[in-house]
User: Fold this.
Amino acid sequence: MILKKEWRENLQTSTVSCGGVVIHRSKVLLLYKTQQGKNSGWVLPKGSLEQGETHKAAALREVKEESGVTAKAIKYLGKTGYSFYATDDAAGKHKVSKTVHWYLMTTDSFHCKPLAAEFFADAGFYKQHEAYHLQKYHDERQIMRRAFAEYRQLRDQNKPTLNQILPHTKKG
Assistant:
């Protein structure tokens, strides 16, 4: 079935992704994404929600798959949204609206390995100010800011659950 160009361009689909802002010793995990040999930029790990999966489970899975990092979800941070145009055989060019659910996460190691099959060329943990300037997308910068604010608040409140996960964290 061939769709008229005007109708195809008015098609809009929605999709849900989930991701993590992984913080270890006050540094955040970023991945360097490339697309078809072109440099794309530094991003937070995130990916599609699979059928029957919770947002939290999807976020943890995507962090592990894309970076090799085993993380623990600490708190739901909220969601962001954006739109882009995609092209496929059935619908042609169409608008996709994506909602991303984000979680504050921690891990116990700086070890990470980017998933080359998903076009990640590099991965690492960066100080907040470094990460802010490296990140490609404004919405990811904002969710990272929120994650660091929550991280500091939880650390400063001496919450037992966070201190068990981050025994090295000092108050102040």
Notes: The chain has one domain: 5-162. The two ends are 64 Å apart (CA to CA). The longest strand covers residues 72-88.
